[in-house]
Fold these 2 entries.
Entry 1:
Amino acid sequence: MGRIAYVNGRYTPHAEAAVHIEDRGYQLADAVYEVWAVFDGKLADAEGHFARLSRSLGELRVPEPMSRAALTVVLREVLRRNRIRNGMVYLQVSRGVAPRDHAFPTAPVSPAVVVTAKAVDPAAAEAKAAKGVAVITTPENRWGRCDIKTVGLLPNVLAKQAAKERGAAEAWFVDEMGLVTEGASSNAWILDRDGVLRTRDTNANILRGVTRLTLMDVIREAGLTVSEKPFSPAEAIEAKEAFITGAGSLVLPVVAVDGKPVGEGVPGPVAKRLRALYIERAKNTAV
Ligand code: PLP
């Protein structure tokens, strides 16, 4: 059975799925997206991702393409048709198709909706987490509205490629104050020397990670201390542990920053425990 994508009301073979050349997402990055982790065929942190999607659409003044219930049906149907039990489902909503012009189309257009899904082998993901990943740092060069989850990801693409070329899995952006904002596709965390779990505050120009927010709850429930206090790359290297969070990475230990080991240079016990706790919570609350 081949892969299936959803494009504007149709379930289509993935290889043939296409959008119009004047889709504003394609031409102008005038589009937003969401990614849900999938456990046992169900959407993890469903509510948080739907809420952020509504917010992103609102910031762009793009109407909701369909109700949340209808969207849930589509996301689940793409998962079902692709027989995905564990993995990720991707949703993109663009302003729609219109003759190319920077300003919004004057005639009303319908938002364009694309959904794709991919399987992830849980054993392979656990093996990656057990090894941990390296990150590099790179100067923050993105626009001022990283709180909106738009498909305009060129700085993230270039940062991720730079990471890959240096044998790392993620790039952390560092702002003009010398503090880490977030990763190219994840939020950044450390367990500092005082045993406090730290991640950047959302007043900064970062995406309000859904995994980040859920993990804050998990941390408090586990009796650990969390602080939205930023950190520098040097503090990360001196930290006991570091990790990243996201719908793709879940909670993934970081073992090196810019080639220098974090802690013992292996995944730390707290990051490993938080990964297990997060996955347990995500599975139990998935819908
Ligand atoms: N920051 C950026 C730039 C991202 O692209 C992502 C996820 O793709 C995240 C953070 C993590 O967000 P979430 O936990 O909602 O997946």
Entry 2:
Amino acid sequence: MLIKNVSIENAAQASDIRVTDGKFEEIGPDLAPRAGEEVLDCTGKLVLPPFIESHVHLDTCLTAGEPVWNQSGTLFEGIRCWSLRKESLTKQDVRDRVNRAVRMQARNGVQFVRTHVDVTDPKLTAMEAMLELREELRGTVDIQVVAFPQEGIDSFPNGRRLMEDAVRMGADVVGAIPHFEFTREYAVESLNFAVELAEKYGKLVDVHCDEIDDEQSRGLEVLAARAYESGLKDRVTASHTTAMHSYNNAYVTKLMRLLKLSEINFVSNPLVNTHLQGRMDTYPKRRGVTRVKELLAEGINVSFGHDDVFDPWYPLGTGNVRDAVFMGLHVCQMMGYQEIMDSYKLISANAAKTLHLGERYGIQAGRPASFIVLDAENFYNALNQKSEVLYSFKNGRLIAKSAPAVREVLF
Ligand code: FE2
């Protein structure tokens, strides 16, 4: 197949893309069609590597209001609501909702997903369902599964055993939630445990780290130190880190050296954390989103995630990770022209680094032909005009398509 006249990643010059046997064979201007080759004219359209959802909770998605709505809008009431919903959790229920959510994401150009799955459930129901779906969807939407202890590791009955069971069942990534543990000591011990578990089984690490407005919540320094000392380094990710928003600048200046040494990745979730954080404040209310702009300026890898889609922690969402970019650019004050143009990297290349996709990802000859075509000439316009993802190709196969809506103004 030959895709004609596209702008690849905002390039000013048009390119053609030849896909053969599920791989990018050739990329360049003015490629001549071969006899019998299918040609897709995409003149003036934008081609990007596929979007990546680097932080979402698929097991809880599409459950808002079941059995109760989160009235206060706080993280902790969300955990209580979910704890009630968990009582009626079945494998079929998880499978149905995740299947719907993944298709919502696919419609929006997402092809890779890292999902956290709550393992503070003695039956590990959601984990079992998610691992099945990971295999069923492999090659269409590739899912990485994090063993995520929503109610703590050392603060939940048999928390350590449940974590190890989930990893043995096949989870790809080890999680933790230090700010939710009963004490600072438990928080530190839970992080030590998570890093050691990842080392033992050769897994990645992704911690819900300091998702609280408490400026004293300092799991991040522990996680970064362990990542550095263990040599796991960029195999480790700190998600949320909203307390960093409230750290004093002197401490952040000191912390930044360790963060750079550690080479860990960050995932920020601007939609959900703008909604959840600052809830104990009167005025001014803190935004609670981590210091994305400053981390990027230091050369530290940051991606954006949606986090929650219509669940107890976030009552909106259509699985469109571009919404996280739109919000993040506002909240992080990253609205310079080039910052907006480049912002797709927060849900593509940067996220690919976090997920360790390596050569499975990227628009380059020889790599799998996974890419999306947007109805815009560059990402600035695609973001601003909420342009449709016209085509989503995974390994050379069309997995989703849309037609632009027809809208007419009648005056
Ligand atoms: Fe999360």
